[in-house]
Amino acid sequence: MEQNISVGLDIGTTKIVAMIGRKNEYGKLEILGIGKSRSLGVHRGVVNNITQTIQSIQQAVQEAEAAAGMKIEEVTVGIAGQHIRSLQHSDYITRANSELVIDEDDIERLINQVHKLVMLPGEEIIHVLPQEYKVDGQAEIKEPIGMYGGRLEANFHVVVGQVSSIRNIGRCVKSAGLQLEGITLEPLASANAVLSQEEKEAGVALIDIGGGTTDLAIFRDGIIRHTAVIPFGGNVITEDIKEGCSIIEKQAELLKIKFGSAWPGENKDNEIVSIPGLRGREPKEITLKNLSKIIHARVVEIVEQVYVEIKNYGHEEQKKKLIAGIVLTGGGSQLKHLKQLVEYITGMDTRVGYPNEHLAGGNDEDVTSPLFATAVGLVMDGVKRQERKHSEQVAGVMEQHGDTSEEGENEVEGQPIKERRSFLDKLTERVKDFLDNAE
């Protein structure tokens, strides 16, 4: 595959998307091909049928390859699912020599200490995200590298997931004939695709409403502060319509997309949809008011659960207020009047997030749909990962030639990148090693 081309694979509950993209000369993302298939072996973000998932992945990948006219080898995969949870944790290290400045190794040591936290059986730490540091009791330090101090402590946002679920996804990708280039947390991928840097600074909650789960990521001061996965999504709404109106799932899904609304007040009592009966049976008549009442009840439940998580983060404290409010994305965000309902329940400014922030012009309209937010984010992540690999190779070559002119400077600048990426890369390595040894 070409140097700067990257592939995102979003393994969702309702659909699997393979997206091929590359960065153009203006630094924007150009989408070369998209493949989409129905996801049959995934339930609430967790693989529950390996064979079906492999088939769905292959179908999506073939479609993307045909559209882009190239072969896919490596993919960046997103993980979400109801097994993901997060916690806050503080830890510290005492440095042997406080006469030396704090460097990368000290931070690495502190972070590795967090990795030793005891988790529930089968759970593993996926992400350790430093929030802010304290050096010798001096608080609110964003970047401690280069400072003097004996005691280095930090608050961490720790994301935990079930290692078996992650390995199953790795297994599906490998069995579909692909290599795992990287693993990313889906709420983070969606956030990269639809949020602007200003929103992340001001404080914002991203709600990604998928088919099986609703993912939440909260940012403030440019740093991720809280993540959560709520085990409900668009599918439960479809289920409710199916049972409430006694119709088949396919009809329920169409009804939801075409006529569904999250706000029952706006439908008149006499607005009726007629649904053909099965095999010559009488057609069914459903009032739109009833339909939106069913949808409304379930959407309120989902939004209230998300709001509980936002309150858990501490949005009601003045210091932690999310000024930029809420951004909705994912397929479920296209439901009519959802924005108004979310504003009504939470009292926070809300907008629907489209992944066009980083996309080059001239892409199909489909690509900029909230449906593809995660896939776009995964492609962006893959591109970043390749750029890092490339710059590391260049740095390696320069070192061999003894060209270390600006070395000290780059070390400090490049620090957060190096440190941030190591966990997911370590996780990717571990999953790869596990799969290689398990063959």
Question: What is the element layout, followed by pairings?
Answer:
Layout lengths: L4 E7 L3 E9 L5 E10 L3 E2 L2 E2 L2 H19 L5 E6 L5 E10 L9 H11 L8 E13 L2 E4 L9 E12 H13 L3 E7 H9 L2 H6 L1 E6 L4 E7 L2 E8 L3 H12 L3 H11 L12 E4 L8 E4 H26 L12 E4 L8 H9 L3 E3 L20 H28 L6 H32 L1
Give me the secondary-structure category: alpha+beta
Order of strands across the main sheet: 3-2-1-6-11
How much of the sequence lies in strands comes to 25-35%
Question: In CATH terms, what is the fold-level topology of the largest domain?
Answer: Nucleotidyltransferase, domain 5
CATH superfamily of the largest domain: ATPase, nucleotide binding domain
Question: What does this entry look like structurally?
Answer:
- The radius of gyration is 23 Å and the shape is globular.
- It has helices spanning 50-68, 104-114, 163-175, 186-194, 197-202, 234-245, 249-259, 288-313, 338-346, 373-400, 407-438; strands at residues 5-11, 15-23, 29-38, 42-43, 46-47, 74-79, 85-94, 123-135, 138-141, 151-162, 179-185, 204-209, 214-220, 223-230, 272-275, 284-287, 326-329, 350-352.
- The model is unreliable at 404-420 (pLDDT under 50).
- The longest helix is centred in the C-terminal third of the chain and has 32 residues, at 407-438.
- The protein is 40% helix and 27% strand.
- By secondary structure, the chain is an alpha+beta fold.
- The two termini are 25 Å apart.
- The strands form five sheets. It has a five-stranded mixed β-sheet.
- It folds into two domains: 1-82 and 164-195 and 357-439, Nucleotidyltransferase, domain 5, CATH 3.30.420; 196-353, ATPase, nucleotide binding domain (Nucleotidyltransferase, domain 5), CATH 3.30.420.
- Strand 4 (42-43) and strand 5 (46-47) form a beta hairpin.
